[in-house]
Design goal:
The chain has three domains: 2-115, Trigger factor ribosome-binding domain (Alpha-Beta Plaits, 2-Layer Sandwich), CATH 3.30.70.1050; 155-251, Chitinase A, domain 3 (Roll), CATH 3.10.50; 268-465, no CATH class. 46% of the residues lie in helices and 19% in strands. It has 13 helices and eleven strands. A hairpin with a 2-residue loop joins strand 1 (2-9) and strand 2 (12-19). It catalyses: [protein]-peptidylproline (omega=180) = [protein]-peptidylproline (omega=0). It is an enzyme of class 5 (isomerase).
């Protein structure tokens, strides 16, 4: 193998690589021999097929396979010999078309272009001083949670004075659904309860009952959505003949044992204990997030290295696609956002750079300190995922076992936490008591940001533009 470095600028590398065809021929011969020993071809005994016959049948495909295998092997070797690690898969360009290489049996020449990961000199963690934000749950937190539950689980009573239906009222109705004048399965019910504004009925069904009075009969026109659970009703226009039996207004449930039992607890005291435990868990989780943010900010500010533009671009594109998908679901456009598109893109680019910077730091700290995931870590990640999709446990396990890329994505947060725990075990960490309000102070959504911190590191692409 002959190697010539054609480009070395920042993190970008380009190599011209030549493989002698005799190496291809040797690998090709080995593959043909292996096929011959395993082939079952009519007219020949198993494992006794002449190599010449195998060559005639599969020779071209085997040559292509041998070339591709050698290109993959040598491209990895070129980087490894120089102590380089590719940021993303290298781009390979063959100097000749595959057909010409095969027919001429000339040496294989190709160009490999890639960005490499930067060299990062990790700081001494013992010199890091951080404050761990801690907030203690108060009685008011439990009282607020009880009030919220009382509001979300109201009792319903008839209004003292007769009135028309309004938002959040519960109506008891009879209805008959018709499509083209005919009843359909599941479209009829008597004494059914409906909460106006709950969006439990299709389309604007509930909105058309606003202003109705007890005893009213109304014809409500709706259209079944194109993703309706009953495929026979998708995109169908329907008329519902509705009779209003009664109107009931919401009233916050009394905070007592009865409310607790409705929520699956034995008593109000048991409900308070459950809420207290959950609030403490929420506080600890929020504290952990704030501490991680502080650590990441410190690590980013105290390390200086170039960012591979390919990784930054990938992260940016993923973020932008997520925004477009979110806007599409909300039936909005970029024009509906507070900032101009150019400013949003600028903000997203800065966030992408920070994410890649932190990701590279996490990976390098983990690599240098030999931090790895064990089976228990992987099982925890799988268990958490299965809890999100009850009843689909076997499908989830099978999916991740057969999809290495998905498994890496699933376990990435677990690995990050292991690295964070390692670093935090080394730093000078002191608790700092803060208020609940400070603990849960939220940052503005990135699409609404008006100011963002300039990243001290720029992607390799941006550096070249200067």
């Amino acid at each position: 193998m002959k190697v010539k470095e054609k480009k070395s600028k920042g993190l970008k590398r380009e190599f011209s690589i030549q493989i002698e065809f005799k190496e291809i021929s040797s690998l090709r011969a080995t593959k043909l021999k292996e096929i011959s020993s395993k082939s079952k071809i009519s007219g020949f005994r198993p494992g006794k097929v002449p190599i010449s016959h195998v060559d005639k049948m599969y020779g071209k495909d085997v040559t292509v396979e041998a070339i591709e295998e050698k290109v993959s092997e040598t491209s990895r070797a070129v980087l490894e010999e120089r102590g380089l690690r590719a940021a993303v898969s290298p781009q390979i360009n063959m100097n000749k078309e595959m057909e010409k290489i095969i027919s001429s049996e000339e040496d294989v020449e190709y160009t490999m272009s890639c960005e490499v990961l930067p060299d990062i000199e990790i700081i001494d963690f013992k010199k890091i001083k951080l404050e761990n934000p801690v907030a203690e749950p108060q009685k008011k937190d439990i009282d607020d949670a009880l009030t919220y539950m009382s509001e979300q689980n109201p009792d319903y009573t008839k209004p003292k004075k007769k009135r028309v239906a309004k938002d959040l009222d519960k109506l008891n109705i009879n209805y008959v659904g018709l499509i083209d004048g005919e009843k359909f399965e599941g479209g009829t019910a008597d004494k059914a309860d409906i909460i106006l504004g709950s969006k439990t009925f299709i389309g604007n069904f509930e909105e058309q009952l606003l202003g109705a009075s007890e005893g009213d009969k109304k014809n409500i026109k709706v259209k079944f959505p194109d993703n309706y659970q009953n495929k026979d009703l998708e995109n169908k226009d329907a008329i519902f003949e509705v009779e209003v039996n009664g109107i009931y207004e919401p009233k916050n449930a009394k905070i007592d044992d009865n409310l607790a039992k409705r929520l699956g607890q034995e008593s109000l005291d048991a409900l308070k204990d459950t809420l207290s435990d959950q609030i403490k868990k929420d506080f600890n989780q929020a504290s952990r997030i704030r501490l991680k943010d502080s650590l990441f900010d410190y690590l980013e500010k105290n390390h200086n290295f170039d960012l591979p533009s390919s990784l930054v671009d990938q992260e940016y594109d993923q973020m932008w696609h997520q925004l477009e998908h979110q806007l599409e679901e909300q039936k909005k456009s970029l024009n509906d956002l507070e900032l101009k598109e150019s400013q949003i893109k600028k903000n997203y680019k800065e966030i992408a750079e920070k994410r890649i910077s932190i990701g590279l730091l996490i990976a390098e700290i983990g690599r240098l300190n030999k931090i790895e995931l064990d089976n228990n870590d992987i099982n925890i990640a799988l268990q958490n995922e299965m809890q999100r999709y009850p009843g689909q446990e076997n499908e989830i396990i099978k999916y991740y076992q057969n999809n290495a890329e998905a498994m890496r994505g699933l376990t990435a947060p677990v690995y990050e936490d292991k690295v964070v725990d390692y670093v935090l075990s080394k730093v000078d960490l002191k608790d700092k008591k803060i208020t609940r309000e400070d603990l849960f102070e939220t940052k503005k959504d990135i699409s609404q940001k008006t100011n963002t911190k300039k990243n001290t590191k720029k992607s390799d692409k941006n550096k070249e533009k200067k």
